[in-house]
Design goal:
Blueprint (H helix, E strand, L loop, with lengths): L4 E5 L7 H4 L7 E2 L25 H15 L4 E10 L4 H9 L1 H6 L19 H19 L8 E4 L3 H17 L7 E2 L18 H7 L4 E2 L18 H18 L5 E6 L1 H10 L6 E2 L3 E11 L2 E2 L2 E2 L2
Parallel strand pairs: 2-8, 3-7, 4-5, 4-7, 5-6
Antiparallel strand pairs: 1-9, 3-9, 10-11
Pfam family, one: His_Phos_1
InterPro entries: His_Pase_superF_clade-1 (IPR013078), His_PPase_superfam (IPR029033), PGM_Phosphatase (IPR050275)
Organism: Fusarium ambrosium
């Protein structure tokens, strides 16, 4: 399938987290202070007379300037990527070990004590998301980071929960509508483990009435029909498609939040040419991404 867009992470804005991943247990990076924004950066859009000289305010102005001055077939979006908090599946995996998990346990829906099919957050995961809410509140209110204009989420239960816990009160405190968009292509890599399959559309709509489920979202999980797991290449291609759809449907928005998964973040990093690394549960990172629409001249499609 031919890509409609090419994406490239803009370097030199945020700390290269792939370069520091080795400093963390199991190479899982955690949320960096100020999301890793490099302090004191100079941007072509800097205005010495602007009243707000905070680093985040200047970056937001730079993103707007980039979109005002770039060609019509190019746009820039600041992506806030959040990995869900610890889920039941993460806890059980740690308890039984990788050999038992990958060979047997992960293919079960659960046991007589708990369910890890489309896993919910554990108490630890809820606490992680609550702590992220505090982080984001300070990032927006104190550091001056731009509020997400659109919230996207994977349809898996742990991401639906995390999105609510992290962003609901924050959006409300800024009189912004809390209406996350549920997007199928953002879900985790399909490993054939039951934690990676989702509940029906009806369940999502009933449990999360404020969420907007994208058009074409099927009642049942079509990925359960696969005969085998996604390859890494297939997953990166799926995230490429997700980004293409997001850049097109959110064409007038510049600051977007995506609540996703561990493999999903790595696939997005790969799709935009960023360094690829693991992230701990309940972690947020940021990427400034340049997107260029292919086959257009002066905003008009060729052919």
């Amino acid at each position: 399938m031919t890509n409609r867009w090419t994406f490239q992470a803009v370097p030199g804005i945020f700390v290269e987290i792939a370069d520091i991943a080795h400093q963390y247990p199991q190479g899982k990076v955690t949320t960096q202070p100020s999301l890793g924004l490099i302090p004191g950066q100079k941007y072509p859009s800097d205005d010495p007379d602007a009243s707000d000289q905070r680093d985040w305010a200047r970056l937001a102005a730079y993103v707007r300037w980039l979109n005002e001055t770039c060609p019509e077939n190019v746009c820039y979006k600041l992506l806030y990527l959040t990995r869900h908090g610890t889920g039941v599946h993460n806890k059980v995996h740690a308890e039984v070990g990788s050999e038992a998990w990958n060979s047997r346990v992960s293919f079960q829906d659960g046991n007589d004590k708990e369910t890890w099919f489309d896993a919910f957050l554990t108490d630890v995961g809820i606490q992680q998301a609550t702590e992220l809410n505090t982080f984001w509140t300070n990032l927006i209110n104190i550091d001056g980071a731009p509020l997400p204009e659109i919230l996207y989420t994977s349809p898996l239960a742990r991401c639906l929960q995390t999105t609510s816990l992290v962003f609901s009160s924050l959006m409300s405190s800024h009189s912004a509508t809390f209406q996350p968009k549920v997007k199928e292509l953002l879900r985790e890599r399909i490993t054939m483990h039951t934690c990676d399959f989702r509940r029906p559309r009806t369940w999502i709509a009933e449990k999360y009435p404020n969420y907007k489920i994208e058009e074409g979202f099927t009642e049942d999980d079509g990925f359960r029909k696969r005969s085998g797991p996604e390859t890494r290449e297939e997953h990166v291609e799926r995230k490429q498609r997700a980004l293409e759809e997001i850049f097109e449907e959110a064409k007038d928005s510049q600051f977007l939040s995506l609540t996703v998964h561990s493999y999903a973040i790595r696939a997005i990093q790969a799709a935009v040419g960023a360094g690829v690394c693991r992230t701990r549960e309940g972690t947020s990172i940021a990427l400034l991404v340049r997107g260029e629409r292919q086959g257009q001249v002066n905003g008009t499609a060729e052919g």
